[in-house]
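hi support,

uploading two proteins for the ticket. first:
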Amino acid sequence: MLQLSRPSHADISCGNHPDTQILQATPDQLREEGELCGRPGSIERKEGKAETTRPLSETQEFEKRQGVTVETKDGKYVYILKLQGQDKELLTTEAGSKGLEKAEAELAKLRREKIAELEKTFKISFSTDGEDILKQWVQKNDCSWQRGNMIKARSPNLAELSGIEAALYRAQPSQLTKDGSQGVKFYFLTEHYYKHDVALAYHIQQDKNNRQAVYFEPGANEGKPITEKDADRMNKHHLYSIEAVTHHELMHNAQQNLNWDTAKEKEKWARKLGWLPFEDPNTHETKWIFTGKKDELYRRDQDHCKDSFKWCACGQHGGLQNEQGGGVQKVKDAKQFTLDQVRDLAQVKPATRYFVNPLEMFAEGGMKYRINEKRRQELLAESPRLYDAVKEHDQQELNTRYGKDQSGSPNYIRSSSGILVKNTAEARAEVQEFEDKIRKAEKK
């Protein structure tokens, strides 16, 4: 999003209700409870001036739609997938419209083959062109909500499939639904879920078929690096590769699988990250307070639905406070902090600049824990308490899915590179050496 995610709603949440019950909980009612499981579009980047938009050429339109790069060599078009830091040449056609038409048919075949492979390997599935999703949320001027037009889906392109595939090999078993019988479904929306609120992706507890799912928003993956290696190569922000966003959303799926949709379990993990629940005395909603290094408390809120969110000082019961520590009713009157100030002052440092609630902070930490050794090292060096919480949660999920041996030891652990391995003495030693090296460096 261009701003921090504003609304939330039960049917796009970590703890939601079927769409048939949507009138029981509006987006506003669940927002601060920590039920929005999305990834905003620009919270990690410092936005500069907007680029001037120009009409796209025929080949640029093709590239945007297909997720590949078209280069001209020896008078022909070469179709390239920039994947894992390399240029993978997919096919060659004659230059011009007829060549693009032929390439579209060939790429469609490659997509079908990749979809079939991923569905078989990981039990997941994908949306199809023209598939109905559900109706768009529209916020009215009085801050109430109504349903708009039906949102349609499309099928994924090769770049999206490749980024999701890269994530799946390190995110497993978090791609599976709660009972393990099937995987999540990945949807690619052609209209934004919230009409005036642009995001990258959302985790959905129950889609139209009562299945756990991930929604990718329109344009979420356009121009994005496919994997972390491609981000480094293209000098793009690494946390916004398709691979990274997929990891984030699948961490939300892991949360659901380990019962974060219950208040008790959610609070247990939230407290490990320095978050405390409180009840809003006016609405009786559960909201969250974030703790600082010296036990100071912060709360993220707004006075009106059209206002931007602000981080403010607050008391132990959630009441807003001014510069002198006195109680105030309005965000505009409270002592305010920038997002970066709160991150630096936090008792448990968030892994990234996206930490609007404990669920999102945890998902960002989980993404860095799993995606590769470099990011995992960053997480441990910058926030050892977040690292330890994510590691504990991850192992609990592995034990739940893959079990323990007769001695009570886990059958599988996650290597420092993020890949699942058999729990051997050698594997444990490799992880221990990795962690000891970083922890010792931090103590110097």
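and the second one:
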Amino acid sequence: MSEKKMRAARLPREAPSPEVGEFTVEALSERTGVSVRNVRAYQTAGLMPPPRLQGRTALYNAEHLGKLELIRDLRKQGFKLDTIKDMLTGTPDGAWSEYSLVSHLFSTTFFTVEKPLRKALSEMASHWAQPATQQQKDRLSENGLYRRVGPDEVEMLSPALERIGIQLAELDVPLNTVLDLQDELIRHSRSIARAYVEQLFIAMVRTVTENHVQRGGPAASGETNAASGGFDLRLAEVIKGLFERLRPLAIGSVSAAFPVVLQQEFDRAIQMQCEQTRGPDAPGS
């Protein structure tokens, strides 16, 4: 081997440079805030197509970026991976990106009917006779109705619930009881909300998107408005209008059913209490 070839062999090889619009997995992770490990896990789970290989380097493009941002946002909203995969699987080519519209709507205050209110953590639970313990403060600030915005400040996403809590405090209802009730309320409300989102909203958005693509909308040809972040503005308006009609129906159905169920549970509890008081041998038992 000549001396020139030997020197060339000893020089470190340059890593393959990605083309414009392509990212290494590290760059994709840094841009989206999703760990490299999770990027690869989503790919293995079939939520993302495999990257383009250039030598031993995996390169991801704008489609991977968009899907990863969508997966990230839906995960933050509590969607499970199998639900996200079901949502993306079978979607017409080019139409998957329109689901980012759904993520965008869900990650803002679209369904919120109140303006969030900021409050110091040190003031939370101040309406009870006894100061709140650290454990109680943690429960108040970690149940999903509060968003931390500083070391001693939170943003209350439902000020109305705090006003209800204050009235319960005036009735001498213990703080732990209020916290237990609030946890149950959130748990069941989240279950109902998830059912509406997965069974109604997502299903209807899928139908609207597929119809839009079949009619030759921009999603079918890959044409989008760059100024709008790559979204099809016409489809965005259709989806937003759909949500505007579905939102009061979802909220109203819960408001309509709860008083009836509450009355039934009250009657059942009173009947059980009366039976216990009378005893099994009482007349009519």
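thanks. also noticed: The first helix runs from residue 3 to 10.
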